[in-house]
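Homework help board

Subject: predicted structure for assignment chain

Our instructor gave us this sequence and asked us to write out the predicted structure in token form, then describe one feature. I got the tokens but I'm not sure how to describe them. Can anyone check?
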Amino acid sequence: MPRYFFDFRDADGLFRDEGGQDMPNAEAARSEAIRGAAGVALDIATKDFSSEVTVEVRDHMGPVVEVRAVIESRLLGRGH
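My token output:
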């Protein structure tokens, strides 16, 4: 089973995955990257009102897929 590495990039820089995960194929790695990017972006956005996170997936040969999640929010209306 292929091993995929999920490197996260946000405003603080790049966080490289040194361990990786065994996944059946690139599509499974893509799905995992989507879930990971969305979760991290949501965590950041609840603190900062906006966030952008990129997950760069690679295998032993190099880049496989890139997923970017962006959340922007602002308060509207009176009293905010």
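Reply (TA_rk): Your tokens look well-formed. For the description, you could write something like this. DSSP finds one helix and five strands in the chain. That's the kind of observation they're looking for.
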